[in-house]
Amino acid sequence: MPFLTSTAYAATSQFRGDIGAMIVDSDPIVKLVLLVLFLFSIFSWAIIIQKWFSLSRARKRAQLILDSLAQSGSMVDLLDNVDKAGDCPMAHLFHGAQDELNRIMAKSQTIPVSMLANVENRIASVNAQQTMDLSHGLGFLASISNASPFIGLFGTVWGIMDSFREIGIVGSANLATVAPGISEALIATAGGLFVAIPAVLFYNYFTGVINHASAQMDTFQIDFMNWIRRGLLHGDK
């Protein structure tokens, strides 16, 4: 097949040592592998950049809300502080709890203690949803980090196979015959590692950040419910 025709240097041209030339003159299958790895790299860095900013913003704003919860004396003050902190997963927890409280108070001017379980369950539900949203995209990043080295290795194996085929065609096994094809093939392995290493490093980092953000939301759930119970005990609203 024309697509699978070898482009090795052994019988066709003089070997050029720079990386760009080796990529251009590599076997079509190796080029396809490098193209796939290039696309994976684009997707990987897009996820990394997006997660870096969104998780950093969420963590900082969550801490502001936790600090304001410890200092606020009323729901109005807390709402004002949450709005000042800005949109973040913890703000969604607060608004979910506020919505549940408003529904309860729409039927009664007071909040029965027995209905506090509804508020806590609502916060837990929003907490789970926000944690899933924070984790969105990390699965693909993990897949890239796991698959890229093997995709690169496939390109290398294919390139080495092509080099040995050229040896059979030329009938010579000297270094000038073998080195060009093997050099091109090894580029695929290097490309796979180039894509996989940042992906796995940032995946582990983001996993830690998400665990921290999840712990912050769990802390908010506990502190907010204690805050509500203290308000009911002292007759505050």
Mean pLDDT: 82
User: Secondary-structure element sequence?
Assistant: HHHHHHH
Total strands: 0
Give me the Rg, rounded: 29 Å
Low-confidence stretches: 1-13
The description of the largest β-sheet is: none
Strand content: under 5%
Distance between the termini: 78 Å
The helix/strand class is mainly alpha
Q: What is the helix tally?
A: 7
Label the overall shape.
rod-shaped
Give the fraction of residues assigned to helices.
over 70%
Short characterization:
The protein is mostly helical. The protein has a domain at 27-78 and 85-145 and 196-233. 81% of the residues lie in helices and 0% in strands.
Show the helix and strand layout.
Layout: H1 19-24, H2 28-71, H3 75-85, H4 89-107, H5 116-135, H6 138-170, H7 175-233
Keywords:
single chain, 237 residues, mainly alpha
Structure in words:
This protein has helices at 19-24, 28-71, 75-85, 89-107, 116-135, 138-170, 175-233. By secondary structure, it is an all-alpha fold. The protein has a domain at 27-78 and 85-145 and 196-233. The chain is rod-shaped, with a radius of gyration of 29 Å.
